[in-house]
Amino acid sequence: MSKFLTFFIALSLAMPLSVTVAQSSCTSETAGKSRAQLEQELEACNREIAQWQETLNKTREVSASYSRDVALLTAKINAAQANIKAKNNQIASLGKDIAAKQSKINVLDSRIDRGRRAIADILRKTNDINSYSLVEAVLSDKDLSEFFVDMDTYTSTEEALSELFAELRTVKKLTESEKAALAKKREQEAANKAAMEAAKKEVEISQAEKKTLLAVSQNKEKTYAQIVAERQANAAKIRAVLFPLVDAGAIPFGTALQYAETASRATGVRPALILGVLQQESDLGANVGRCIITDLSTGQTKNVNTGYVWQNGIHPTRDLPLLQNILNKLGRDPLNTRVSCPIAGVPGYGGAMGPTQFIPSTWNLIAGKISAATGKTTPDPWNPADAIMAAAILLAGNGATTQDWTNERTAACKYYSGQTCYKTVYNSKTGKYEVVANVGLSYGNKVMSRATTIQTTMIDPLQNL
């Protein structure tokens, strides 16, 4: 049986490789290649990723053994390496797009500059003609026919001016459109570079784990049964680790994972990403501080630890009425329920609710979806299961269902700020538009880092038993 199992795993690993060699040209070499070639290679890389993912899924179904575990790690490494090649191709392709867009923008900018100069020249000529008074026309050395020639020039000048203004508006609108497209390409380039770095780290972790496993197997330091027993003991510890939640105490990680897996099945968002957001919000909540409402008409709140009073505790018209409505339905005391305090030195309000820190107006927008997913008429923002489902629904709406690193980070940035991770600003010194970090980028990066740690150190060990 052991020989058959080893043969099966070896065969399952060999098949994707043979297909890849025969049909694809997924490489990390991008220099000197056309966009069409890069697109073909990207398709090949995506096929390779799918092949290794299929191998990974099939291998998980095989009974646990040294061979199976090595095969799992091999497939995982190869899938990640193919993903790196794919991102590299995308970055090279985007680089070509960016160069083409910049060239087009330069041409359009030149047209605008020429148009402005032409308008200035026409305005000067128009002003010269307008400077004629009736007396000057009569007393002028010019005869009457020459004067009327100038008037004809005036009419044609006005027509030319009108046409130039129209053209300038069109070119300017086209230029702004091209600059917006350029900014989008640069955002994609920055995101792909970050995703590639994340994939490289994943490869490093898996290679180290594979090396350790092979060494243990070859040196026969432990039987596989001993390895499994150690993993099961570690899994029990992982499940029992307390997962801190804002305003909801702490729950065992095993319970939090169950809630996240339920939310994942309902929305398509990865459990690790959901828990990464949950962990980040818990840390933010601890840093920002917890408040209670002290005035139900103005939204004034007070920090429960320091006693500091916030006049901008909660938005008085957008969020306060909705919060009171939610609390009334749940039977909670509005003057004794904790919400987030405002962030000191940052414009805005506090008032975020529960473990996933929803402001009432955002919670209200997706309340129907939360009810449908949980089966509850009145979902509770302070209930961990409901809060986790709500976070997954919002992340799904933000584009995290693709489970692609770039889209997941964008979804996390939007979760925090309602905006993407990057924004485009005009640099007056260079006269060009530049892509810079948006307010939520740091949050998005931290969420993705937490999600990776949760996946590799907590979820994967539970799956590889």
TrEMBL record:
Signal sequence interval, chain numbering: 1-21
Gene3D superfamilies, alphabetized: 1.10.530.10, 6.10.250.3150
InterPro entries registered for this protein in UniProt: Lysozyme-like_dom_sf, SLT_2
Any coiled-coil regions, as ranges: 28-97
Taxonomic superkingdom: Bacteria
Keyword Signal included in the entry's annotation: yes
One Pfam family in the UniProt entry: SLT_2
Transglycosylase SLT domain residues: 196-406
Keywords linked to the UniProt accession: Coiled coil, Signal
Record-linked SUPFAM superfamilies: Lysozyme-like (SSF53955), Myosin rod fragments (SSF90257)
Protein name per Swiss-Prot or TrEMBL: Transglycosylase SLT domain-containing protein
Organism: Candidatus Zambryskibacteria bacterium RIFCSPHIGHO2_01_FULL_49_18
Upper classification of the organism: Bacteria, Candidatus Zambryskiibacteriota
